[in-house]
Kinase-like domain-containing protein (Glomus cerebriforme), 100 residues
Amino acid sequence: MLVLDYAVNGSLRNYLDTNVKLSWLDLINYLRSIANGLNTIHANDLIHRDLHIGNILHKGENSIFNNACITDMGLCKPADYIVTENTKKKCLWHFTLYCS
């Protein structure tokens, strides 16, 4: 079981839908926070495989330097994971569901 902090505004997508004007400082802080999350994932020899704006949670205005959290690690695999024809089909199926 994985327990995360409560994300006040849900996903970053939901937050940006209601707050379209962000300062450059806000954008840089989001990028820094996302990059730190990816660095942590990659430092553990993992690949997320499903990173998009809906899988990034907005943690709130008070979290200036750590305002985003990467979630949905369901498709996460080890960096040395071997892709087969069967797993390619499963990945395409998940992507198709997300797009629709």
Q: What stands out?
A: Residues 12-99 form a domain with the Transferase(Phosphotransferase); domain 1 fold (CATH 1.10.510.10). The longest helix spans residues 24-43. The beta strands are 46-47, 56-58, 68-70, 77-78.
